[in-house]
Design brief:
By secondary structure, the chain is of the alpha/beta class. It has two domains: about 5-130 and about 270-335, no CATH class; about 130-270 and about 335-360, Rossmann fold (3-Layer(aba) Sandwich). It has helices at about 15-20, 30-40, 70-75, 80-95, 110, 115-120, 130-145, 165-170, 185-200, 210-215, 255-260, 290-300, 315-330, 345-360, and strands at about 5-10, 45-55, 55-65, 100, 125, 155-160, 180, 205, 220, 240-245, 265, 270, 290, 330-335, 335-340, 340. Strands 8-7-6-9-10-11 form a six-stranded parallel β-sheet. The chain has a five-stranded mixed β-sheet with strand order 2-3-1-4-5. Helix 8 links the parallel strand 6 (about 155-160) and strand 7. Helix 7 (about 130-145) packs across helix 8 and helix 7 packs across helix 12.
Length: about 350
């Protein structure tokens, strides 16, 4: 008989509209007032997750909300934010979880989840290992679809010195012709450039300015922790491919509205095995979830109740291991999507045709 793993996943609203969408009676409350209320509100369970099943294991869990918006997490003192996340983790413990995932910006503060993990009696993961695996898989598929050869492209990574960006860079350095790394901290960029040169022999271009680098990039993986969009239509090379893994998104919606030659895909959306019921609309199709959520489920199905992806020290072996475990249980990429919607095949064909025209 298969055992039943127990997990939780901590969410937070990106902005006040996420709250009013779930609770329409709050719509008359001004956004700033709603954020003030949220600052002092306790964490709460928003739904129960059932039906995560494969031939090799199963799991059930809960979504727990840490009631802070992206703006608040980026703007409040970090110690207050961390305490709020810890409170959400303790609620997960009381709900019976053995491992909890940290979603969106809750995975960034407190040393990439280290302070939260130290404070809790259950395992913690940010889900970044599987996020990297799916981002790379999705990027490779998009590159192939658009007619590029990996060994001939200039790959740009936005947010390159973060835990996700760094490992994406290390893995992809062996496959691409050129690598352009963008982040805010020049010292960290130089250290990453030297590390990649030592490991792969590839000399990377580095910059702290997105708009300077993107016009020369054929393909972009966007994984920054910015609170707003950083990629605008005018920055992108004709025929570019962009995989946006960041939450909140790095890519402005104006890109898909005005650039018919650019393919933008969301990284890290996967199909979940089994008749899964989330009890919550979090902006992806029924039966799918973000890769960070999936990593938490995979660990529960495997009964691997250990701190898995925590802190800034994400490794290539971790990424490869969780990818194998995901395949074992039947998690897989869920096609090409952008801005919470599947990209129709007709639209994909139009983008590819237009991209080939402008690249000539």
């Amino acid at each position: 008989m298969k055992s039943m793993g127990q997990f939780a996943f901590i969410l937070h609203p990106m902005d006040p509209s996420y709250v009013t969408r779930k609770y329409p009676y709050l719509r008359p409350v001004p956004a700033r007032a709603l954020e003030w209320i949220m600052r002092y509100a306790p964490p709460f369970k928003v739904s129960r997750i059932t039906g995560v099943e494969s031939e090799h294991g199963s799991a059930h869990g809960h979504f727990v909300v840490c009631p802070l918006t992206s703006r608040q997490i980026n703007g409040m003192p970090e110690d207050l934010v961390v305490q709020k996340i810890i409170s959400a983790g303790r609620l997960a413990e009381r709900l019976g979880a053995r491992v909890t995932g940290l979603g969106a910006l809750t995975a960034v503060v407190g040393g990439g989840g280290e302070q939260v993990a130290d404070a809790l009696d259950i395992a913690v993961t940010t889900g970044n290992s599987y996020t990297v695996a799916t981002a790379i898989e999705g990027t490779r598929e998009a590159v192939e679809y658009m007619g590029y050869e990996l060994d001939q492209i200039n790959l740009g990574i936005i947010g390159a010195t973060g835990s996700i960006g760094r490992v994406c860079a290390e893995i992809m350095a062996d496959d691409v012709q050129r690598l352009s790394l963008v982040a805010r901290d020049g010292t960290k960029l130089r250290a990453l450039r030297d590390r990649i040169l030592q490991k792969s022999g590839l000399s990377s271009a580095i910059s702290t300015c997105v708009s300077e680098v993107l016009p020369s990039c054929d393909v972009v993986i966007a994984v920054s922790s910015a609170s707003g969009t950083v990629i605008e239509p005018q920055y992108l090379k004709p025929g570019a491919v962009v995989c946006d893994v960041a939450r909140p998104r790095d890519v402005s919606r104006r890109v898909v509205q005005t650039r018919d030659d650019v393919l933008v895909i969301e990284g890290g959306i996967v199909s979940v095995p089994g008749p899964v019921e989330f009890g919550l609309d979090f902006g992806v199709p029924e039966g799918t979830c973000m890769a960070c959520m999936a990593e938490t489920m995979i660990l529960a199905m495997e009964e691997r109740y250990e701190n898995y992806t925590v802190g800034r020290h994400l490794t290539v072996p971790q990424v490869r291991e969780i990818d194998e475990l995901a395949k074992k249980h039947g998690f897989k990429l869920s096609g090409f999507r952008a801005f919470e919607r599947e990209i129709p095949q007709e639209k994909l064909a139009q983008i590819r045709q237009r991209a080939m025209q402008v690249r000539r």
